[in-house]
Amino acid sequence: MYFQRNFKNWTSGNSDIDKFIQNNQLSVHKDNEISHVLEWISYDRLYNIKYIAKDEFGEIYRANWIDGNIKSYVSVTYQNCVTYQNWERYNQNMFVVLKSLNNLKNITTEIENEVYKPYGITQDPETKNYIMVLNYNKCKKCNSICNAIHFQHKFIDWTSGNNDIDKFIQDTQLSVHNYYEISHALEWIPYDRLYDIKYIAKDEFGKIYQANWIDGEIEYWDYKTQNWIRYNQNMFVVLKRLNNLKNITTEIKSEV
Ligand SMILES: [Zn+2]
Ligand SMILES: [Zn+2]
Fold it and tell me: Is pLDDT of 79 > 70?
């Protein structure tokens, strides 16, 4: 009934979508059903919208959601008067997946067939397209959003320009789940994050350089900024040329 009270405060501009969301919200009675709730999400509550890929149904985007999803209803009463009532939310600024709704007459099927968990529907004010706002998949091993998933969110933010190297780095990132494993993840480091590059020596495989790395190593994921917290900023690093791109694993593992 908390949802019903709020029906007058939002509209998608489309009566099928309004009806669909309202029916969903009216089916939520107990606190443990709240995770199934869908909302109308205003497009301006999403930011950092970036194209990921195209599948047979349309384009897929990644975005951050300012509010995060609903956790529970909070009602505070003081001397028999309700002083505060609102939804408590969590996962503020969380990463979400955006996918266009293709058939407004068949929203139920489209949302139920979705592999990602839906949070709601929004509308691009320019194209007028209705868009599903979906959760990224949880990690199957951890059953949560672990470090591997945080790395995965950022796959579209970088590329080495070489598929083998991208794949190799991504695989190391997808294999780190908990805090203790994080140092095993490799990164793509843009050359301009290195400075004071100096030649030190030559070995049988090529020249060796020393440099300083502006950013330093990854320590843990920060939910507030949705980014990595790092340490050892400006640390000294050694640079060595990769000789065989088809055999990166062996070359990196045999590195002293
Ligand atoms: Zn009820
Ligand atoms: Zn995991």
Answer: yes
